[in-house]
Hints:
This protein is of the alpha+beta class. It has one helix spanning 32-46, and strands at 5-9, 15-19, 27-29, 49-53, 59-64. The protein has one domain (5-64).
Amino acid sequence: MADNYWASPHPNGGWKVQKEGASRSSGNFSTQAEAWERAKELARKAKSEAYLQGENGKIRERNSYGNDPRSSKG
């Protein structure tokens, strides 16, 4: 399983970054932008994917930093 990272709203306010399948968060942040940057940074290091989940529960953004099956340029 890849080490995908999620930036999502924290139930107690603010935002959290959590590795997929983990029970604890990798960090808590006051803004969505800070959490999203951290999730992308961790995903780059793990060569995996970063997901940004909005307050409505839907995925707002997704970035892939690993084995992308598409071979298109640019």
